[in-house]
Amino acid sequence: MRVMGLVVAPFVLSAAMAQSVYVVDDDGGIGIFSELQDAINTASVGDVVLVKSGTYSLPHHSMSYQVTRGISVVADLGASVSVDATFSVRDLPAGETARVRGLQLSRSLAIVNCFGTAWIEDCTVQAATFPVGASGCTVSNSDAVVMQRCSIAGATFTNAGNPGSGIFVNGSTLHAYDSTFTGGTDITGGFLPGPGAPGMFLNESFVFAQDCECFGGGGGDAILFQGCNPGGAGGAGVDLFTASSTFLHRNTATVGGPGGTAIPGCPAGANGLGIAAVAGSMVTALTSSAALLEVPGPAREQQPLSLDVTATAGDSIALGISIAAQPLYFAPFTSTLLLDASLQAVAIGTVPASGTLSLNLTSSALPTGVDATTLYLQAFGIGGGVAYLGSGVGLTILGAGF
After folding, report:
1. Which of 285, 311, 332 is the last residue of a domain?
2. φ, ψ for residue 326 (rounded to 5)?
3. Which domain range does residue 369 map to?
4. Does a cis peptide bond (omega within 30 degrees of 0) precede residue 198?
5. Reduced to 3 states, what is the DSSP secondary structure of residue 178?
6. Which residues, listed in sequence order, are joined to residue 285 by a DSSP beta bridge?
């Protein structure tokens, strides 16, 4: 394996052969899609939809962009891509990986009925106030969801008790890294005060969170209306709603939202709990080391590429590379292995005193006639004689023509 080229040549070949690139720009152009959904519909499994800067929207709030197969939808490096619509990954078949990177969503994100891997990274979501109580992200009936370096916020609402969770996880498995989940705040606005929403809500689900932040939303302020209406309670940072839910967390802040403020003669609401867990649910704080991997993307072939790993000074770091993602919580390491059986690994160095190991790489050349390849990377570490698994990155390498 060549560290400076990131990958072994046969590894690139096996990943790249079926990958074409479809470019989207809201200004249009020759050979370029102006409508995002048209490009998504055209792409086949393994292909890349490359989105240029612009604002993409649908004609009605009930409509959504939908990804239903294993493609990558990625904002170009440095692009500002705003999506004024719900974006969904749904009905993904087993054995396929759908990847979304770098989108700024102003309605919501939905991951529904996925048997394959949904890999979301570097996205921001601020849920719209319509529909009422919209969560920033809903994950439902999905077996393998990875979310990294995202900021997800539920809707703030100006009626009684209807803000949205930052992320609502229902009957699913989520592996979250370096992400922030914020519940919506109830703004009383003359209506009866309601509670704030949780940053993360779990219903019959398993969540592994590393280096994340979960903030409950604030409760509505107390008002006098046909008597005293006390302030609403703050939302929990994490709310485990059912006994069959599990929340494993490492280096993760869980902060309850503030209760609504008092007024003369009417009390404030209670502050939210950091973690609200029903009897029988499982909450475990993990104490072993962690590593954060960052690689800007997409990259162009044979161009400079930076790689940063933040971990404990003195730890030895290796880079795992695979052609597909298949996340599985690995109990011996109290962490998630994100990569599939094609995994190869190479030692890349020791973390210096600064706490960040930085490498300047050169991305691989693609075979003739291949437009792009997508690889999945994960940081592995050893510190104090103990091995651990870090966060990951999905990296698309584009041909020089893109």
Report:
1. 285
2. -150, 75
3. 292-398
4. no
5. coil
6. 249
